[in-house]
Each structure stands twice: as C-alpha cells, then as structure tokens.
Design goal:
Layout: H1 4-30, H2 33-36, H3 42-47, H4 51-60, H5 69-123
Length: about 140
C-alpha cells in the first residue's frame, strides 16, 4: 500500500505532465513559426494569424470599445433595410388577406342573393309580376 506522500507526489507529477501537454497544444493552435519549427503552409497562412497580430487586434477592439462611425452607419443601413423588407412583407400579407376576405364576402353575397331569388320564386303567388321594381329589398 502506498503512503500518502507517494500519492501526493504521483498526483502532482501527473498534473504537471498534463499541464505541459495542454500548454503545447494551445501554443500549436496559434501557428507561430518559431514554436512549430517549420514553414507554415499556404492554407494555414489564410486561416491563422501571428500571435502578436491577434493580440493587437484584440487590444484594439475589445467588447467595450465604441464602434467606428462606418460600422454604425453600416449597422443602421442594415436595420433600415430589414425594416423595409419586413414592412413590404406585412403589407403583402395584409393585401392578400383583404383580397381573400373580399372574395369570401362576394361569394356569400352571391349565395344569399341566389337563396333569396329561389325563395321568391317558390313563394310567388302570381298576383304581382316578378319585376325588379316590385321586389322588396331583404
């Protein structure tokens, strides 16, 4: 059975090895030429940037830094364009619905007119001629 000193020594040694491996993996993803020891290929030049360039970029533009005037203008133009598209979409939907309602109303009026005409023909007693001016509006 191992003593507690051996357990602590073994766990700290394994933690140290693990940290070294993680640090090597993190530095390899930056893509610096000195750490890799070899020339960077064409494809990775376009994907990765130098560590100094990345840190400068992040220092230059943090989360709390204000947007430039050009960025604000582009964002406002995008919002205005989105608002216009949304307005056109809802206007088109409203027009389609109004046309649908108007067609439904016309069909209902036609059915009602036909039903009234059939009722009048069925109940016609022959005393008055079935002229339009003798018909009452129902």
């Amino acid at each position: 059975m191992m003593s507690w000193r051996q357990v602590i020594l073994l766990s700290s040694l394994s933690a140290l090895v693990l940290l070294c491996k993680l640090q090597e993996g993190a530095s390899a993803s930056v893509g610096s030429r000195q750490a890799a020891g070899e020339e960077v290929q064409e494809g990775t030049k376009q994907i990765f940037m130098q560590e100094s360039d990345a840190s400068n970029f992040l220092k230059r533009r943090s989360k709390r830094s204000p947007m430039s005037r050009d960025e604000v203008n582009v964002e406002n133009r995008q919002k205005l364009r989105d608002d216009e598209l949304r307005r056109e979409y809802y206007k088109e939907q409203r027009n389609e619905f109004e046309n649908f309602v108007e067609e439904q109303r016309d069909e209902q009026e036609e059915r009602t007119r036909e039903a009234v005409e059939q009722w009048r023909q069925w109940h016609y007693d022959g005393l008055y001629p079935p002229y339009l001016f003798n018909r009452q509006n129902i």
